[in-house]
Amino acid sequence: MSLTLPPSVTKRAFERLSEINDGVDIPQALRIAVEGGGCSGFQYEIKLDAVTGDDLVLEGEGQKVVIDSTSLPFLTSAVIDFTDELIGARFTVENPNATSACGCGTSFSM
Fold first, then answer.
1. Which of 60, 67, 71, 77 could bridge to 34 as Cys pair (CB 3.0-4.6 Å)?
2. Domains contained in the chain, CATH given
3. pLDDT in tens, 58-99
């Protein structure tokens, strides 16, 4: 029997989302979704969005990261982070369920 854990969000990701939402009238949640497509079969969609009724809401640093119920099984035990590297700054998903990933970092297969 394997234990299924919800995704987690790093402090760094919540802090970056807080910076993005600083000074706006209506703070947005960070939505992580999995869609068919990309060069490996699935791809992540990461965007600012409002919370909806079927979302799993992960909260920290006064911020919210949301995942819809359809995407949730693909993100079991995943870690949502924020990286700032030479190639650019972006939110990332470290997904232990992915069997392979594309170099772009947003496409994966299971």
1. 71
2. 8-100 (2.60.300.12)
3. 999 999 999 999 999 999 999 999 999 887 899 999 988 877
